[in-house]
Amino acid sequence: MSIWHIVLKSLRQHALSTAVTSISIALAGGLLMAVWSVKEQAQATFTQVDAGFDAVLGARSSKLQLVLNAVFHLEASPANIAWADVLDIQKHPGVELAVPIAMGDNYRSYRIVGTTIEMFTKSEYAPDRRFAVESPGRLFDPNLREAVVGSFAARKLGLTYGSKFRPYHGLNFNEDEQHEDEYVVVGVLEPSNTPADKVIWIPLAGVQNMSGHSAETATDVSAVLVKLRSVMAGPSLEQLYNKRGNRLTFAWPMGATMAELFNKISWFDRVLALVAVLVAVVASGSVLASIYNSMNERRRQIAILRALGARRSTIAWTVVLEAIAIAAIGSLLSYVLYGVILTSAGAIIRAQTGVVLDPLAWHPVLVFAPLGLIALSALAGLVPAWKAYRTDVAANLVPMD
Amino acid sequence: MPLLEISGLRKSFVSPDGAKHTVIDVPELSLAEKAQVALSGESGLGKTTFLNLIAGILKPDAGTIRLAGQEVSSLGESARDRLRATTLGYIFQTFNLLPAFTCLENVLLGMSFGPGADRTHAEALLKRVGLGDRLRHYPRQLSTGQQQRVAVARALANRPKLVLADEPTGNLDHANSRAALKLIREACAENGAALLLVSHDREVLGQFETVLDLATINRATKPMEATV
Please, what's the largest Cα pairwise distance for chain B? Predict the structure, then answer.
């Protein structure tokens, strides 16, 4: 009969409080791990997502707005740029590839992006990985009203090969503003886990000439995605567009631009982290309260164990170990909760941005949070342990005569 | 050499009103190995306090208690715990079984802090007290008499040299009382343990060849205040 046996008996004896306290630890652990993991993964992913391009050229605005609009398909386009600007940057010796995109329509809230076929044939959304169309399917014909749908959008909208749809005007879904033009889905993209998954791609001319769009701006585009021949070209283009010109903005480098966003909202991270830490402290406090409140009923048991020869320190250790065991059970459960939170948060982030979080991705917080909670709980267990240590044996064994 | 030697033993308590009450004042007492002695006395004479002093649960204010060659009163707390775990068995009037532990586990607990858990020995003890078929029963599933038998088995689990029994039949009916007393005496004899039993029950006391009157050996015979 080991000390652990006594601890397990006590856990079973106080099953309800053990369960409730373990769940509070699980909530704290799950929350802590999820907050850190979502933060870290989101930051890492968003600063790395570039859709295979190095920069974005768009109308005069902030770099962040351009990147969010052109790469993540969030936010509104600041303004259009002329086709001549597209041709200019395509001819620039430092540019390897410049793909224009045009936005302004949606299909049931999923953004429709007009582009050229080079988006799929020449760009790589990740090293050595190009967009591919699921079978059966093919890329759209630039001269026809055809669409290639991102995997996530296709699934959510129920669009498959051969489906037909009529776009709605604007980036926000308004049932009353449907265009006359009808498009046929000729392909669904294989999942790329990038923002492209939540977009409906059509030929550039399709957006430009959509019924109801202004004829005056029929050749304009929303932005140009730019791949440089080398990073050396970046500063000169930035100089050209951002410093000398005042009409266009060249958002380069993209990773730094996104990192700037996370720097701006870092206070929010700190608030979340603070809340998570407070929850952890409260949960550890619940271990203390749960064991401490049961100390009165335990006094007799402690006295009996002492009468049988158990040392004060042994008794105190059983209490600390009980606190550790409750925290350990809670920590194991916290992984389940972490998985649930990250999957839910991941689904929201994916729906909004197309970026996918990995619930199984390694992060040190997955070890440190449970260990920290166990350590905090052990610390909290010292208070009732001290009370157990000081239990008066003679007074609690039997009524003295 | 006696198993237990007590000399000049004194213990006092301070009541809430600040008055000091001497509960135990035993000039001399000895107990031979394997002896079986009953200690008689009415309630309030400090019988439990006396046993707790011998067990090292309480520390005396003065005097010496020598048990199995060890000076109990001069031992530190850990050493007294160790002495209880290895040398003493304790049977309580209210049995003091742990409700979350089965019969077998309660007996194993009696060994765990001393020689170490010996399942075979524990099972043999429970068979000896007639509970071989109740090993995995919890105390609440046993009758009062059966609970007392578990307590007897637990007291003998660590192969003690001395068993202290505090009104062991106080919660039992007449028939169970006789059976329990017989069992305690036989089990102690079989295991080579001396027995010091306190009781105020004349029938119980009548079963012993040696009966000491606490009112005689304890000079502090004035009944204690209820708060002590």
Answer: 52
Note whether A394 contacts B105, CB cutoff 8 Å. Answer: no
CATH superfamily of B31-60+76-217: P-loop containing nucleotide triphosphate hydrolases (3.40.50.300)
Q: Which residues of B touch A (CB under 8 A)?
A: 43-49, 52, 55, 57-58, 77-78, 81-86, 88, 90, 92-94, 96, 98-101, 105, 108-114, 117, 154, 158, 166, 224, 228
Three-state secondary structure along B124-143? Answer: HHHHHCCCCCCCCCCHHHCC
Task: Tell me the β-bridge partners of A178.
Answer: A168
Measure CA A128 to chain center.
24
Contact indicator for A312, A54 with CB cutoff of 8 Å:
no
Q: Domain residue spans in chain B?
A: 31-60+76-217
Residue of A nearest to B80 (CA): A309
Residues of chain A found within 8 Å of residue B80, distances taken between Cβ atoms: none
Residue of A nearest to B199 (CA): A401
Contact (CB, 8 A) for A33 and A365: yes
pLDDT by 10s per residue, chain A, length 401: 778 889 999 999 899 999 999 999 999 999 999 988 888 888 887 777 777 889 999 999 999 999 999 998 887 888 899 999 999 999 999 999 999 999 989 999 999 999 999 999 998 888 888 899 999 999 999 999 999 999 999 999 999 999 999 999 988 888 888 999 999 999 999 998 888 899 999 999 988 888 877 766 678 899 999 999 998 999 999 999 998 878 999 999 888 888 888 888 888 888 888 888 888 889 889 999 988 888 888 888 899 999 999 999 999 999 999 999 999 999 999 999 999 999 998 888 888 887 788 888 888 989 999 999 999 999 999 999 999 999 888 888 864 34
- Inspect the interface and report whether the beta carbons of A1 and B109 lie closer than 8 Å: yes
ipTM of this predicted structure: 0.88
